[in-house]
TrEMBL record:
Alphabetized UniProt keyword annotations: Hydrolase
InterPro entries: ConA-like_dom_sf
Name of the protein: Glycoside hydrolase
Lineage: superkingdom: Eukaryota
This protein's record includes keyword Hydrolase: yes
Pfam families on file: Laminin_G_3
A single GO molecular function term of this UniProt record: hydrolase activity
Amino acid sequence: SGDSIFGIIGRFSVLEKKQGLIIDKIQIFNLLKCLRNCEKHQQCQYASFNSSFCVLYSFYAKYYLQNGSKGFLYEKKNQKNFGLVNYWPIEDGQARDLVGSKDLYDSFNTVYSQDRHGSTNSALNFSGGKIRAPTGVYFGNEFTVLAWVKLKSYMQMQRLFDFGNDQVNNVIVILTCEQNYLCIEFFKGFNKDRMSTTILPDLNVWYHFGFSLKAGKVKIYLNGTLAVSFIKEVNPLYAIERTRNYFGGNDWAIPSAGDYHCDEMKFFNIELSDSEIRDEYFYEFH
């Protein structure tokens, strides 16, 4: 039954400050019915109940809990493996990693701007700029990266991200390769695999990008839809610490800087399914 698969976290509430946290709000006068509603929704991981009001929350509510509530917050006991290892929501003029504590730093020609919902100081805005991520193990042979991006110009070789060790073992997504098309580069040591596409985003439009790798197969998603998949196997990636990690550009190539907005960068250590990436685009949770 619904109550047997939930545990009580306690008198916590969710700081409802952003999209993607709330799945539904329902007027219900029975706790068990509230929990059963959460049980029915695969995406529901938390539920709060307060005498006559039931709120269903996504997995991301985990990172917005606060003490103090008139009611109780309940959590599904057996959560699926979300595989989320880094999450930079960009909010309140900060680029904190809510999961892996890899807060971004050392920005250059970068300010905070409005996100696609109109919230202030809630997106990174590069103007020939970049920002650095700390040393860490970000990638292995299976991963998914999601991000919202709005290009301001077709300045050449703008990197959505470039994580590596100088020019060794890099994982790179370039938004504007030859003819301004998107491309991906994977380095194993000094050996490079480049995958070119015909994806050409319009300027000044927000797009949701997704990139995944599993068993050597690469998939690229645009606005929740699979746009390109590379059947050929790429070089296996080393799951190692990468020390020179940037959004926007890097510190070794010329040109290497970003001229775009970005927001909601999420790194997973698993391959998300087509439907999960579609849900992330439409609902900002899966």
